[in-house]
Design brief:
mainly beta, about 350 residues, five-stranded antiparallel β-sheet, Tachylectin-2, Chain A, binds beta-L-arabinofuranose, single chain
């Protein structure tokens, strides 16, 4: 439900109908990247704040400054806020807009991956490390070489290789990198998008180096195909990629899930390897209150869970969101049961 249609919502009624409640209510949180480390759930969300910057198509109103890690014993247990894990003022290359992060672990070191705008107004992706899953995280002095756009999601495959999926159109600037170099904004944030009858812009994927601090290869396109094996078109905005990449593996198949942005769905596509192509397979989550939809999918004690967010606690304010969790079910044929966030 986009912000312009919230005027008539009875939020008390909506919250009664919600399939889940905010995991924390003392701060606003969004874009939950959840992982299980040592048998405990750790969530790496954006930390939403009121910036008083007006809504625009660039997402300027998402002016977040730091990250807090949230942890839980179980998906229905108490969520603990471990405080500030990384602040933009401690990241030498980053000026503002600490958007959706992700984290991973390798050999006892925890890696926090995060997008932020540099001092030229260009989104880059940085990495910070800690010996603890809750930080504090020490950032690398520079952003990842040749990184761009937003929403990093790091996937560890069973063979121990790590891949980063990333990208987001509109305010996430992916369209401005279409030719390989950064294009000026031109006629506005929607400039440089493909025409409706051209293939949609794709998320990117790159394997990471062994120390997880750099791309080991030039990022490749994450192509999503339709039922005929053709790439989804840019005008197919109920199915095409917008932002919020995530990867999970189930029964040997690779599930690439993502947000459709302006149509507010979390959808998924299935492939046979981490690079794809991925065949569009359907919707996971129907629209939530608030413009954005962003999620992660993680297995805990043999049950899969969808972490997501909505703006119900802030009564529909787009940039003040709250993280939530609900169970996710794979059907026997490999498809995922659709989730309706309000019954
Ligand atoms: O939280 C800021 C941005 O909003 C994220 O990077 C996007 O995925 C969207 O949720």
């Amino acid at each position: 439900m986009p912000e312009d249609s919230i005027d008539h919502i009875d939020f008390d009624e909506l919250n009664r109908k919600a399939i889940s409640q905010p995991l924390v209510t003392h701060i606003y949180t969004a874009d939950p990247s959840a992982h299980v480390f040592g048998g405990r759930i750790y969530i790496y969300p954006s930390h939403d704040i009121e910036s008083n910057i007006p809504f625009d198509d660039l997402g300027s109103h998402f002016a977040m400054e730091d990250y807090h890690v949230i942890s839980m014993d179980t998906p229905d247990g108490k969520a603990i806020d471990h405080g500030c894990a990384l602040h933009v003022k401690d990241v030498p290359w980053a000026e503002k807009q600490m958007w959706a992060p992700d984290a991973t672990e390798k050999d006892g070191i925890y890696y926090l991956f995060f997008p932020a705008k540099d001092y030229q107004g260009v989104f880059r992706i940085g990495v910070a490390t800690s010996k603890s899953p809750v930080g504090p995280f020490i950032p690398q002095p520079e952003a990842i070489k040749n990184s761009f756009s937003i929403d990093p999601a790091v996937f560890r495959d069973d063979n121990g290789k790590y891949y980063m999926y990333f990208g987001g159109i509109w305010g996430g600037q992916l369209q401005r990198w279409r030719t390989g170099t950064f294009k000026a904004e031109g006629e506005g944030p929607l400039a440089h998008l493909p025409n409706d009858d051209e293939p949609a812009l794709c998320a990117k994927v790159a394997r990471l180096t062994d120390n997880l601090l750099e791309f080991a290869e030039t990022p490749k396109y994450v192509v999503i195909t339709d039922e005929n094996g053709e790439p989804l078109l840019a005008g197919d905005n109920e199915r095409r990629f917008f932002e919020a990449s995530w990867m999970h593996k189930h029964n040997g198949k690779y599930y690439f899930s993502y947000s459709t942005g302006d149509t507010h769905f979390i959808c998924y596509a299935i492939g046979d390897n981490p690079y794809g192509p991925f065949r569009y397979a359907g919707r996971i989550l129907h629209p939530v209150v608030g413009w954005t939809s962003h999620h992660s999918i993680v297995k805990f004690n043999d049950t899969w869970y969808l972490f997501y967010h909505d703006s119900s606690l802030s009564k529909g304010i787009t940039h003040l969101r709250s993280i939530k969790v609900t169970a996710l079910h794979h059907n026997d044929d490999g498809t995922i049961r659709e989730i309706f966030p309000y019954q």
